[in-house]
Amino acid sequence: MNSKYLKWILFLAALLVLLVVSVLFSLSAGEIKVSLMQLPQILSDKGSIEYTVLSKIRVPRILMAIGVGGALSLSGVVLQGIYRNPLVEPYTLGISGGAALGVAIAIVFGLNTMSFFSLPAFGFLGALVTLIVVYLLSIKRGGLSINSMLLIGVMVSFVSSSAMMFLMSISTTENLHNIVFWVMGSLDESNNSLIAIAFYSSLTGLVISYFFAQTLNALRLGEVKARHLGINTGVAIKLLFFVASLLTGIAVSVAGVIGFVGLVIPHLIRLIIGNDYRVLLAGSFLGGAIFLILSDTIARTIISPNELPIGVITGFVGGLVFIIVLSRSKSHFKLN
Amino acid sequence: MAKGDFVGIIGPNGSGKTTLFRGISGELPPLKGKMELKGLDTRKMNLKQRAQNIAIVTQNIEIGSMTVEEYVLMGRIPYHKQFQFFETKEDFAIAEKYMKLTGVEKLKGKYMNALSGGEQQLAGIARALTQEPDLLLLDEPTSHLDITHQVQTLNLIRRLSRELGLTVLMIIHDLNLAGEYCDSLIMMQEGHIRKKGLPVEVLNYADIEAVYETVVVVRTNPISNKPVVFLVSEEVIEKS
Questions:
Q1: What is the pLDDT of residues B84-108, one digit of tens each?
Q2: Are the C-beta atoms of B227 and B203 separated by less than 8 Å?
């Protein structure tokens, strides 16, 4: 086998091992310590406290971390690929702003009390409306301009965050608290169907993105040159944009705004294994999942019994690690 | 154009060289008329088929962290099946062959952004050849190169058109290089073809002065017998 492919397989295998290790660590850490040695025993005793803690709290949070972390990191890497811009992340395009605005509207108008599903639904609706607005505004006669799409996304993001600040300034203290709490992000989700949606949609996104791995590679040369290689860039870019945005929308609606994953993880993976999307897509997905599992474990254990918002950890750890790695790395920081 | 022809497109800025080029490459639809390649209407080709038949080397190759080999292998993308992830042994062999032919084989593990302009241009040609096209389009392949690399690149292109039977269409600003290397020339003026033919027919004092609005002197290269164009400065013209 070609040595390049072998390297990729080893890299992905190493990430899988790391994922398993993080899952085991996350299962055992917490206020109630669970020894991994006892795991088989605990699993057989469904009446024990440990079993309840694992099945009701830790396993669902791990699944959420995999779904949300994978989705954010994957959409980050895909968006960086289609925009050929290293600073793009899922939130740059206004999708999180839209989702946050949707949630704020729901809370201020008291729509969140209707059902457990209403907050995520409004978040997703906000993300979807933003996505459609950005997309429609970016279409010009004859096609889609990638750069204007980026600018419009940033502007829409500003507009929705202003609208949200307005809503926050006129809302009651309790509503304000709810909005702020939601915006800070959390993987604590009690509803199993929402967890399943987050988990399976991100896996589906990964599979879909792989159909476009070579397209993303060709786009490293630029849109025109990718077309010279026989790639229908117009269709591919639109499709990838929608997949990435929907993944972000779902992640934000179930977990709130968790920053940095979509920006930091793809770049770290690029620094380690290079810019070939055939390994980068799965690498980013796994990296995002691992990062969020570990961050969440830290967030719920560091000041236990209280819990930090996960965004605090991802921002701190992600940002610091990134700065250290980047300043030590000799290789130039390039995307394409 | 016949198989194996090496044709240069010349003309001042804005005369329609690039538009003609983009029409041929399929980026722009033809306003009227049609283009046929091996008897097939290029408008009816899909993007993949077109990429298998026409390869394009643009002026600047703006890529960063990609090795020469990875870059050249991209020329195989038009041949990949829908959703094919990996290159085949054949793809590697073809890329290897053209890296050898263009002399970039020894650079294959280097990153593209570590190469000189001349080396990048050669890698660009290797990538285009890996598409195994019938028609190779080159947009000013020598514009950023010193004379050593200009000559090296053009010698290579000429050899390729002879040995592989590759038809080459090249935009080139340097009239002397155009005259020396091309089998025939197309001179563009204001969106139309003003003249086409052998270098010696196209590169003459009257046509060049009319198209470029510049005073020139045309002589013959004593060794190659190809036309050579000399420029004359304003100061000298005023004195004489």
A1: 788 999 999 999 999 999 989 999 9
A2: yes
Structure token digits, residue A116 = 């457990």
What are the domain boundaries of chain B?
A: 6-198
> Does pTM top 0.90 for this prediction?
no
Cβ distance A276 to B84 less than 8 Å, yes or no, reads no
Residues of A in contact with B46 (CB under 8 A): 230
Please count the residue pairs, one from chain A and one from chain B, whose beta carbons lie less than 8 angstroms apart.
Answer: 67
Q: Does B90 touch chain A (CB under 8 A)?
A: no
pLDDT at B65: 75
Residues contacting residue B220 through CB under 8 Å, at least 6 positions apart: B226, B227, B228
**Is A211 within 8 Å of B83 when comparing Cβ atoms?**
yes
Homologous superfamily assigned to A3-328:
ABC transporter involved in vitamin B12 uptake, BtuC (1.10.3470.10)
In this complex, do A336 and B62 lie within 8 Å of one another by their Cβ atoms? yes
Quick check: B56 contacting A, CB < 8 Å? yes
DSSP string, B148-196: HHHHHHHHHHHHHHHHS--EEEEE-S-HHHHHHH-SEEEEEETTEEEEE
**Given pLDDT bands bounded at 50, 70 and 90, which one contains residue B180?**
very high
Instruction: Write the ipTM.
Output: 0.85
Judged by CB atoms closer than 8 Å, whether chains meet at B83 and A2 is answered as: no
Q: Where are the domains of chain A?
A: 3-328
Q: What is the dotted CATH code of the domain comprising B6-198?
A: 3.40.50.300
Using the Cβ of A51 and the Cβ atoms of chain B, whether some distance falls under 8 Å is answered with: no
A84 and B CB contact within 8 Å: no
Name which of B74, B84, B85 is nearest A229 (Cβ-Cβ). B74
Summarised one tens digit per residue, pLDDT across range A271-280 is 889 889 999 9
Cis peptide before B29 (omega within 30 of 0): no
